[in-house]
Design goal:
With about 475 residues, this protein is an alpha+beta fold. The protein contains 12 helices and 19 strands. The longest helix has about 40 residues.
């Protein structure tokens, strides 16, 4: 979106726009590269340690093993014992590591299939302060600080909050090598952890595709790209423009909330349509706000703690209980498995006879663990109360939007798993397991009409709606 004669440093101070239609291998490779950096070493080390312990335990403890008669390290190093030690200590763990690596690599090949957002075109605008994302079911502005890792490979840039939340920016979607340099400069300056992976010598073979877009529209400003005329079209032919997107300063194309705290505005269809961009890039990407409700929330002291308390005892504690029971049941299974592998039936029988006492010892450990988690959550809510911010929620037929300061997100309703209504609040649980929560205090609605509209909308759009007594 800038003149290609400018230096990368100049470009890094201006927004950079790309439009991406993903290929399956781009998403799969991007997720694998992030996983290889954040989780793979820990997984390989764990399987190595486990297989080493089991194999060496058999070699040293099993009565059937010829090495069980060795009492010192010097005896183990004798030539007749060395092959068994090497197989148990290196061969078996290395084989297990290789098998786990191949299994994880195979599972990463389903990353594209499991994430339908990548099946549709996506738009990105990169600013020095963050990246703006617009996809089929939502849009949002993400601060660079939210990414724990930024990777550059020969084919793409990968931005990761964790192993399950990754943005892949293929280099082919930029305009030139100079624009790729500008993106790299932004990431190096803004990311907490920037790494280059793989062989970057393939950059010369990249075919840049952004020349297929001759102009874009950002924040209502038209950005011509004179050096990027679409192939087989004349200089004066029709131009392709994108949606006018909100910028990183917090401007919004929708109606603004009233200055009074706790006020709400019903947005009519005509008002909303008047603010929509006139030339969307794709019907699935266009902001389709029809009619909705907008409320401004400044949480009072204790409101977040009240919601977290309900969530802990109805959701988190149940999940912890499942984990605790699973661990208690896995303990005897592990003892039996090790006793069988090491051929120590008598030792296994002794341990199993003490299983009841072990479980009784685990109960106070489990209780202490749950109390510590609950205490940490309550302490975090106190910190949130001290640094209270104004949140603007927008509820429409298409989705839920949230804005605070320079950050915002808009999500389609299918992202929400459940909605809980209490006497004082509406709690929307986000994600397949409902681990993230949006809280709407009922006091922010100016009258019963606004509250009735919100509850009716949530009942229709969220598949599980519960009224808690």
């Amino acid at each position: 979106m800038t003149d290609q004669s400018k230096t990368p440093n100049t470009q890094a101070n201006e927004p950079i726009f790309i439009w991406v239609q993903y290929k399956a291998e781009e998403v799969n490779n991007g997720y694998w590269q992030v996983y290889a950096q954040l989780q793979l070493p820990h997984r390989l080390f764990s399987i190595f340690a486990l297989s080493f312990s089991v194999a060496m335990g058999y070699v040293l403890l099993s009565p059937e093993s010829p090495l069980s008669t060795a009492n010192t390290v010097a005896e183990l190093m004798q030539i007749q014992y060395l092959p068994g030690v090497l197989i148990a200590g290196i061969g078996i763990p290395s084989t297990c590591m290789a098998m786990l690596y191949l299994l994880l690599r195979h599972l990463s090949e389903s990353s594209y299939r499991k994430r339908p957002n990548f099946h549709f075109p996506m738009m990105y605008v990169l600013y020095p302060t963050g990246i703006q994302v617009q996809f089929a079911t939502g849009t949002g502005m993400i601060d660079w600080r939210q990414f724990s890792l930024a990777l550059e490979s020969a084919e793409s840039f990968c931005l990761a909050s964790n192993i399950n939340d990754v943005l892949v920016l293929p280099k082919r979607c930029f305009a030139s090598a100079e624009e790729v340099d500008a993106v790299r400069a932004i990431l190096v300056a803004s990311s907490r952890n920037f790494k280059k992976v793989g062989n970057n010598n393939k950059a010369d073979s990249i075919v840049y595709e952004k020349k297929a877009i001759s102009s874009v529209m950002i924040d209502g400003v038209h950005f011509p790209l004179p050096d990027m005329v679409p192939p087989n079209r004349e200089q004066g032919s029709d131009k392709l423009t994108t949606n006018a997107l909100p910028d990183d300063s917090g401007r919004d194309t929708g109606a603004k909330p009233d200055e009074n705290h706790g006020n709400a505005n019903l947005v009519s269809a005509d008002q909303a349509n008047a603010n929509l961009p006139s030339a969307p890039l794709d019907a699935s990407l266009g902001s389709s706000l029809k009619t909705g409700l907008e409320v401004e929330v400044l949480y009072l002291s204790g409101e977040i703690a009240q919601a977290e308390n309900i969530y802990f005892f109805r959701k988190r504690l149940v999940l912890l209980g499942v984990v605790y029971v699973a661990l208690a049941l896995l303990m005897p299974i592990n003892f039996l498995a090790l006793g069988y592998v090491w051929n120590l039936p008598q030792a296994t029988a002794v341990v199993m006879s003490l299983y009841q006492q072990l479980v009784l010892l685990l109960i106070p450990v489990y209780i202490g663990h749950a109390v510590c988690i609950y205490w940490s959550i309550m302490q975090r809510t106190k910190v949130n109360d001290e640094a209270a911010q104004v949140f603007v929620f927008q509820l429409t037929e298409e989705g839920c939007g949230v804005r605070t300061g320079e950050r915002y997100v808009v999500l389609a309703w299918w992202h929400f798993e459940e909605c809980w209504e209490t006497e004082d609040q509406l709690m929307m649980l986000l994600g397949s397991r409902g681990r993230t929560m949006f809280v709407l205090p009922k006091r922010v609605f100016p009258d019963r009409t606004g509250l009735a509209y919100a509850t009716n909308l949530l009942q229709r759009k969220i598949k599980r709606y519960k009224v808690l007594s």
